[in-house]
Design goal:
The longest helix is centred in the last third of the chain and has 29 residues. 13% of the residues lie in helices and 28% in strands. Strands 8-11-14-17-20-25-28-31-34-37-39 form an eleven-stranded parallel sheet, with no helix packed on it. It is α/β, with parallel strands linked by helices. The chain is built from three helices and 39 strands. Strand 22 and strand 23 form a beta hairpin. It starts with 5 loop residues before the first strand and ends with a helix.
């Protein structure tokens, strides 16, 4: 399934690209440099793939000026070819949009408000006092809890669960299995016995946020857990209660963020990273994959921890040396004192 074919000239105008070639060429799809055929458009955003450019069969390629002369076909020149690809990809997205209206098998509480332009899928549940805005899609089997609010043009894919008092902004995307508003991990200990603390805050998600499959965002203990505008969360991320994430931060899969931590704007967290609780991460911090943060980070920049993969034999040697560091430090200190005396 594709959108209506468009001419290369129309695509160039829509993307604000410089066209070098035949404006009347009709584009019916999008693909990689290696696999594209006539009628398709491709892109070159990573110089690693430039080796495929001379032999591409695509009818056109989106690229930067530096590679324009190496392309054997029509080109659209852009400063950021990857952004051009990102915008163009939506024209050929086969996902489509379900019909508006409420499926007969859905359950909608009489006190809930569902816009006429919204779509509520089979088996979905909309609980008391919930508001489903204009153009919203609630996928099959999804649950929208009491007093939740979903802003216009947001989409819940099948089997998304919103507990009570969750606020979703405009144009958000929540993928299957995402759970927002579950209880945070809050317990008081009395002589070894754990006593549950009621989690009475909510979750607030800004506009243009995307939340990946099976990602969980806990509700606040007293105040809301907050996800800022434009935040992008990958699959299988755990965000604990009362975390605040600043606008336009992007977090890759399998990251865990402990409770009451504040993360700034425009941060990037690599996959598998972990952030301790009650910390502050300033704006524009980049954590490389598997980084463990145990203290607040007050300066922008790139941070890493741990070691890269190596052979088991070398790793065992490194572990032995690591265990010897404390003894070596004491011996070095004693030697320095002896030399100074």
């Amino acid at each position: 399934m594709t959108q209506t074919p468009r001419t290369l000239g129309a695509i160039a105008e829509a993307l604000g690209a410089q066209l070098k070639g035949d404006a009347d060429v009709v584009i019916t799809g999008i693909g990689t440099l290696q696999s594209s055929d006539a009628g398709q458009i491709s892109f070159l955003a990573n110089a690693t793939y430039a080796r495929y450019l001379p032999e591409t069969r695509a009818s056109a390629v989106i690229l930067s000026e530096a590679f324009a002369d190496q392309c054997p076909t029509n080109v659209l020149v852009m400063e950021n070819p990857y952004l051009g690809y990102a915008r163009l990809s939506h024209w050929f997205d086969p996902a489509g949009r379900p019909a508006t209206g409420i499926h007969p098998s859905a359950t909608v509480d009489p006190s809930a408000s569902v816009a006429a332009s919204a779509s509520v899928g089979a088996g979905a549940v909309i609980e008391a006092g919930a508001v489903v805005g204009e153009g919203v899609i609630v996928g099959a089997g999804s649950v929208v809890g009491a007093r939740c609010h979903i802003g216009e043009d947001s989409r819940l894919w099948p089997n998304v669960t919103l507990y009570h008092d969750v606020y979703i902004g405009k144009r958000c995307i929540l993928h299957s299995g995402a759970i927002l508003g579950a209880d945070g991990f809050g317990f008081a200990n009395e002589r070894g016995v754990w006593h549950k603390i009621a989690q009475i805050g909510g979750v607030r998600v800004g506009d243009d946020v995307e939340i990946g499959a099976n990602t969980t965002i806990d509700r606040g203990a007293l105040e809301d857990t907050v996800i800022g505008d434009g935040v992008k969360l990958d699959n299988q991320i755990q965000i604990a209660h009362n975390v605040q994430i600043g606008a336009h931060t992007a977090i890759a899969a399998c990251v865990g963020i402990a409770g009451s931590t504040t993360i700034g704007e425009y941060c990037i967290f690599g996959g598998g990273s972990g952030v301790g609780g009650h910390l502050e991460i300033t704006d524009r911090v980049h954590l490389t994959g598997m980084t463990m943060v145990t203290r607040s980070l007050n300066e922008p920049g790139v941070y890493s921890s741990g070691t890269g993969v190596e052979s088991n034999k070398q790793w065992r040697k490194s572990v032995v040396r690591f265990r010897q560091l404390d003894d070596m430090a004491r011996r070095l200190k004693a030697l320095e004192k002896k030399l100074s005396d």
